[in-house]
Write the structure tokens for this entry.
Amino acid sequence: MGKTRLETSQSTVDMSLVEQVPGKKLKDNLRAYTMVFALLAIWLVLAIATQGTFLEPRNLSNLFRQTAINGYLAIGMVFVITAGHIDLSVGAVAGLTGAIAAMLQVQWLPTLGAELGVAWLQAGWPSTIISIVAALIVGTIIGIWQGAWVAYGQVPAFIVTLGGLLIFRGAILGITKGINIGPMNPTFQGLGQAYLSHTTGIALAIASVALIIVYTIMSSRNKLKYDFPVKPLWTEVVLIVLYSGLVIGFVIIMNRYRGVPIPVVLLIVIAVICSFIFNRTQLGRYTCAIGGNLEAARLSGLNVRRVMVQIFALMGILGAIAGIVLTARLNAATANAGNQFELNAIASCVIGGTSLQGGSGSIPGALLGALVMASIDNGLSMLNVQAFWQQIIKGLILMVAVLIDVKSR
């Protein structure tokens, strides 16, 4: 009897998340299109103000590389906020894991290699791989640890991650002694500074267009199989042409400078994987269910505690990736690395349509929000706007985004 009730309740949760009323779908689409037009308007204004310099391939390449760091954190933050929580420690986690990766390459592994007489620990791919794996393990452990406090200790995530922020900031100072740690191994630097060759970029564009076509066809077939409404054929063709055009245009513009940046490629891969998890797996559906109605999710038989630990573990992994790429890009670990990254990640999610009330989120929307934030930073810096005005403007944008979210519900 218990098994039957659990299967029925989980099926109900899944169907409730699949079946969306037309009004909600229309509102979500309208918000997405509004953000796209807002981004284009921002780019147009900045292009005019900088006399076209903002839209030059070199600056756009730097812009997308800036977006990548915040994008990793924003993707994880979508899961956390959708589940009805918040993580204030992601910037500190990025800084700490980046510092650990740097210390392993610069001091710890070379010292150990000298003591043991092992030359390959001092430089090259082995130390790079060890540093990356160690940073990812630390990020995962931090995520699980904080998730356990929230799920099993029932301590509010705001308090847990605020305490984590202070702890990890202190750990960064203790590890780095307040000085910059560098330089990194050339193989490690490539994670933040390298570019795809022009030929590889073109191959990536062709593969992406093929995947777009295959995904669209498979999605339509699955909808027909289960008698779900499908879009008209002309709509599907227009969307394929539009998305393919964006991919091809992006690669062409990047190839006019040095090629597609490696951090952007990594962001795209992570975004695709996490979007699949969020939209197509139980973890994503249960995340929305928990954020939408925690008590109903618990009574439905969901293992809420396990899901919460998994969400924070994922956030920890993505925080570590952000720290690794940041350290590789700067070619050093600094004591203030990742400072205020958590605020940018939260702002990106809210701007992109993720509700602070929980229950709904969008990874593509969060990436769009991250691009908006990076565009504002980049454009205002090019215009030599003082730093305090940049903070004021970003704060006002965040407040307006939250106001729109509240009023739309």
Notes: The radius of gyration is 22 Å. Residues 14 and 282 are 8 Å apart (CA to CA).
